[in-house]
Fold each of these.
Amino acid sequence: MLKLLNISDPKVLIGLSVFFVLIGGMVIDPLAGLTCFALAGILALVAGLRGTRRLRYLAFFLLIIVSALAVSRFPGASQHFDVYKSKAVTGDIK
């Protein structure tokens, strides 16, 4: 019989966090990448709170990586959002 995957398991949360880090690094849109990094950080934080000692160290390491990647992606995402906002105000969106 197949055992269903337990989403609340910290190992699964760490795996999803790594998945979102990879997706956030590959996506071209800076705002989408920043969103993926934010989701990865949230999942790593939850895994760190619920996991064993070894998983907590891994989650802490992931949080440091996600924070650095999010900070590096933030200026591009901010500029991208400002361009979108100016186009939305002027009605230039097609």
Note: The mean pLDDT is 87.
Amino acid sequence: MDELLRIRGLTVRFYTYDGVVQALENVDLDINQKETFGLVGETGCGKTLTALSILRLIPPPGRIECGSICFNIDDENEPVDLLTISEDGIRAIRGSKISMVFQEPSAALNPVYTIGDQISEVILLHRRQELGQRALEAVNALLAETPGFISTLARPIWLMERKLYQQVIQAPSSLWLTIISRIFLVKRLLWRLKDEAQKITISVLGEVEIPDPQRLTRQYPHQLSGGMEQRAVIAMALACSPKFLIADEPTTSLDVTIQAQILELLNRLKVEWESSILYITHDLGVAAEICDRVGVMYAGSLCEIAKVDDLYANPLHPYTKALLAAVPKLGEEPHSIGGSVPDPLEPPPGCRFHPRCSSAMEKCREQVPLMRELAPGHFVACYMY
């Protein structure tokens, strides 16, 4: 399976008045094409921060100190390091090649714009050339019609439209086009771009199984249920057919029935759109259902990576074992993990899990264990092996 994303040595720090928060520490992660990779762990372990690092959206006072995130944009060119490209370059990738479904849909949607306008904005930004081509075809069809009284009067306007759409196709991001499109008359002539974007919006909303998508495009976020809001956010993320979708706990605030529908939807869309998914969750049951491989995070570092069946059948890291033991099972008493998550301002030396680990050795307190492959595709960072 070809590699889509490769993260090496990702380290993130937050420089606060209280001190330096060591949020992520030397994270190494590979995600393959057409697979769902799950990232699990306790709240605050760095799962969402890893996703935000991929998109270079670390909020201040955070800073990516070092590392590389190589993304395979297409099969013809070499992967690009998302941490070294320009701001314009990463902005072109966000929403088009890499999209993110945020944890709280009501916070991700703007309450003063309709759902249709918000999804159309993404399409107008990243698929402008395609919209120009569709609009040009519509204008050419009008010009090819048998001349009549109305078409004769409108013909000069259609010719002006055609010239503008040709410019959109040739240079969709040109500064000249951006400037003149703000002129009222030119803006009116480019109305077909927004019309075509609305058509694509309705189609994408239909893909995520929203009933009557045309009506929903005219509604505001507060008029939707939680499940419909989440579907709208997924539609927005999929509007430009991204190769890589990041889903940050998209079912946390939903009931079990809607949660199952969203998971089934993501599985189906991954197959149909041939995308890869980074699924972030603290629910091990959800990870088992949707993921192909799973990475376990603790206190800003990865401690185990394996295929989902291998991880659940043969967990190796003490933290992974403790997580699985804490999951409620029928007829068994769940076991809580002793101790507490370390303070990121003053993390313990060596393995960050050693203060809570019953198998900790002296070496665990002194040196950070490196990730080792103990079985094909099964990696663990622990001195017990």
Note: The radius of gyration is 25 Å.
